[in-house]
């Protein structure tokens, strides 16, 4: 069986870890140091010493320079690490623990730490080769490169001082999450799906009825159960289709990335049961990756939850920051608008011969709206600034809706927010909010009328 998913998950975990980039830079510094020292023993080193603008270093001077560089670099590396920990602690307190992944994977922090560690190791590599006994050897090229790296380190330190406060600014935090959400919407719901549409000439069975059939006929269906507990981080759909085709199965997925499973909880149902051998069960289980943390790679809800978490903390009684909540609502609307403007991919996956192999859980526009706006409305309903902006963004979102069902979902969120705000806002504030809500409902009504006229 192919091992694409485990390898891909391992590569993602390593690539986004805090230690990966600094480790690569440290190894590169050691190799570069050895190469520079070797070049100093070749004619290239002699040519460098003959440059008119370069003043050769003596052994004692070279040792002093390299010792100063190495000592200062390791000191600054410790300071950089400490500042990063403080920034992470602040982010976890202000924005929630889910945001930690974003800061740990920040390339700016990783490159900064790696620069100082690499310069330190490079200086040590060169320092050990200087001697002034019977024969004097000073690797002039290598010493010059150490001074260049020290100058680059100063530039990186200046960048780091600018980058840290910028990276923990709430607008930048929300923007990083929001842009990732918009990109994820584009990948999950591409324009022009290559899967079989629901209104094909030969319609496939309804998703809900398929699940009911599977659950109601236990003798015909085998459950593919988890053998470890944790969050589903990813699943390999192509491998699921190939496995189902290889064993001539139809697989109905019950869990998707972001769901929690415990040992014995079913991932999926496969039919017919008599074809679900031990090898088939193992192959289907290996199409899932389970870990301790939710990840944003295939989990749209994780990104939405991050924005909701920030908005909820901003609207807590101890903070009461409606403008941070507005920023999160803006990006929730951007993600929903991206989804509204695209065609939903079919929940059915076919093999190369057009045979149904996998039935996916459906992700609807209403689910996304409820996960985002439905979750955040209870936090913004007591504040006029945040609630009014939510109504404004919902009205704007209605202009991107392509179907009547999407417009009904938007109107449902408006009605839900107004129902909560009625009991939490003062009469004057609620009257102002209600006026905007009525305008939004009228705009949605006109859009529904236009679609009804077009259909007629």
UniProtKB/TrEMBL annotation:
Stored Pfam families: DUF2254
Protein name per its UniProtKB record: DUF2254 domain-containing protein
Species name: Sphingomonas sabuli
Record-linked InterPro entries: DUF2254_membrane (IPR018723)
Keywords recorded for this protein, A-Z: Membrane, Transmembrane, Transmembrane helix
Transmembrane segments: 16-39, 65-90, 111-131, 137-161
Lineage of origin: Bacteria, Pseudomonadati, Pseudomonadota, Alphaproteobacteria, Sphingomonadales
């Amino acid at each position: 069986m192919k091992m694409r998913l485990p390898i891909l998950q391992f590569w993602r975990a390593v690539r986004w870890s805090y230690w990966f980039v600094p480790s690569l830079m440290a190894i590169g510094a050691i190799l570069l140091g050895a190469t520079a020292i070797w070049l100093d023993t070749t004619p290239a080193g002699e040519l460098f010493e003959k440059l008119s603008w370069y003043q050769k270093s003596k052994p004692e001077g070279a040792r002093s320079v390299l010792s100063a560089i190495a000592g200062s670099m390791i000191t600054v590396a410790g300071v950089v690490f400490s500042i990063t920990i403080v920034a992470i602690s602040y982010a976890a307190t202000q924005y929630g623990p889910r945001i930690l992944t974003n800061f740990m994977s920040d390339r700016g922090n990783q490159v900064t730490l790696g620069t100082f560690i690499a310069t330190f190791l490079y200086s040590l590599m060169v320092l050990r080769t200087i001697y002034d006994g019977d024969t004097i050897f000073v690797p002039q090229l290598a010493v010059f490169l150490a001074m260049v790296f020290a100058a680059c380190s100063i530039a990186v330190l200046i960048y780091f001082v600018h980058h840290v406060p910028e990276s923990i600014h709430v607008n930048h935090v929300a923007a990083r999450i929001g842009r990732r959400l918009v990109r994820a919407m584009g990948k999950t719901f591409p324009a022009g799906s290559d899967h079989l549409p629901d209104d094909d000439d030969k319609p496939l069975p309804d998703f809900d009825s398929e699940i009911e059939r599977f659950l109601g006929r236990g003798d015909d269906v085998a459950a593919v159960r988890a053998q470890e507990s944790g969050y589903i981080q990813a699943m390999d759909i192509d491998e699921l289709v190939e496995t189902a085709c290889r064993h001539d199965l139809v697989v109905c997925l019950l869990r998707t990335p972001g769901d929690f499973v415990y040992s014995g909880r079913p991932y999926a149902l496969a039919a017919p049961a008599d074809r679900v051998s031990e090898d088939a069960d193992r192959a289907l289980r290996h199409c899932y990756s389970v870990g301790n943390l939710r990840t944003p790679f295939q989990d749209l809800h994780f990104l939405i939850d991050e924005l909701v978490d920030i908005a909820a903390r901003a609207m807590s009684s101890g903070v009461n920051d409606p403008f941070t909540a507005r920023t999160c609502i803006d990006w929730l609307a951007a993600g929903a608008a991206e989804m509204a403007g695209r065609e939903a991919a079919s929940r059915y996956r076919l093999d190369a011969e057009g045979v149904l192999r996998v039935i996916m859980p459906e992700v609807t526009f209403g689910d996304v709206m409820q996960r985002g706006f439905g979750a955040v409305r209870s936090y913004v309903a007591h504040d006029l600034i945040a609630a009014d902006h939510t109504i404004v963004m919902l009205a704007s979102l209605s202009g991107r809706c392509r179907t009547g069902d999407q417009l009904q979902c938007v109107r449902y969120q408006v009605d839900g927010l107004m129902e909560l705000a009625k009991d939490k806002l003062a009469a004057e504030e609620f009257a102002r909010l209600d006026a905007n809500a009525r305008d939004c409902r009228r705009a949605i009504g006109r859009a529904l009328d236009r679609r009804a006229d077009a259909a007629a």
